[in-house]
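Work Package 3 (structural annotation) set out to generate three-dimensional models for the target panel prioritized at the project kickoff. During this period the team completed the workflow that converts sequence records into discrete structure tokens, so that structures can be stored uniformly alongside our sequence database. As a representative example, we reproduce one entry of 484 residues exactly as it appears in the project archive.
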Amino acid sequence: MSPDTIGLALLLLGVLLLVAKFVRVKSKLTQKLFLPSSIIGGGIALILGPDIFGRVMSLLGTDRFAEGGLFGPGVQEVWSALPGLLISVVFAGLFLGKPLPKFRDAAQLAGPQLAFGLTLSTGQYVIGLLLAILVLAPVFGMPLLTGALIEIGFVGGHGTAAGLGDTFDKAGFPEGQDLAVGMATVGLLSGIILGIILINWGVRRRKTAVLDSKAEISDAEQAGLMVGEKRGPGAMLTVHPSSLDPLALHFGLIAIAVLIGQVILSAMQAVEQVLWADTIEIFAYVPLFPLAMIGGILLQILIDRFDKNAIVDSMMIERVQGFSLDMLIISAMATLSLQVLAENLLPFLLLAVAGIVWVVCAFLFLAPRMMPSHWFERGIGDFGQSLGVTATGLVLMRIVDPELKTPAYPAFGYKQLVFEPFFGGGLVTAAAIPLIISPHVGAVPFLIIMAVGLAASLYAGLFIFGRKRGKAARQAEESASASA
């Protein structure tokens, strides 16, 4: 592909994002659903792509748009390559600019949150693998690795689904990437829609500690606009632009984190080839992005040690991540193959429905029994993340706790320090496919491993942290009785 084609593809993504934002501002439906502009733009690009616009034009007598839709095959080729690149940028910045907390403080607040998050993720593997072993493989002839699609698409999201494209190819199931991206789209939409429904239910049933039935979301907030006093700086200038633009500085730090991840991955692959590649290969299938996150953590340790002038700004890192994630989502959706989804529609729906039912039931029945306090505010974050990535969980928490009066935000953030390196695109997510297809491990042993993880997280949440909830409730009752 030519440099001009690459440039045009990037410019078109920018135009699509602006069009999508206009739709979000003008459309009441998209506002009520809190649909991100990247999802709207991805939907527009998908409609104008070869599977819809191209097929319609073919029916009208011209095959000019059959390969690339309105945008052309060259642009589609660029877009298909972007998610695998941008996901490393997103993961590399997850912990940059954020001082790593003390272990005791993080563990005390994040313990029940981590138990609930692990319950959701390991449960998605257990349900998916059971479906794959008992139904999808024998009835539909699907490979057993489809059992990992729920966690990859729901918790991992579009970035993880697209970033595992090479892994699916090496596993001999290239259709898996389209199914995973489709799963991520279903999960994101379900997370937002069902999250809003659950919040309204929680407010009416008085399950929420902060939000009440009189609370209203302004028209500007629904449109995704910041107005008046709510406007603030998106980042801080920590170095003078005359010496180096702050954005360039922070992009350079993310680049270093990605390169550290690449060095770690290459070293692991080299060690694997020397020691055990003849028996089992794992790191040959592992993509770069979870190691880029490890690179970011290692870089942040050095920053905490040597950065005396506090030149790393977490908000600037978030702007780079946010830009990358928007571009990633819209390009992943734009290149989604609807034909693959149509050919595997019933297995896809079985996995999606099973995953959604599991997450909803876990939120309603397990979160109240695992969280020692403010179960709704804390549980809704993990609910959103387990269906539509971290951003969805943060959006739902922001709705239900707009002034950050509950421990939901810090608990969720501390949990991520342990959760993200392994699930939702971490090492477990990356290793799941090679372990399932390995003749030395396989689907059943991996299912047993995830079942043990599910049992352990359930035990910790219900019988360790759940007891703290009961103790807190008894103390509250005793205090009320003494006051009376």
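Residues 443-483 form the longest helix (41 residues).
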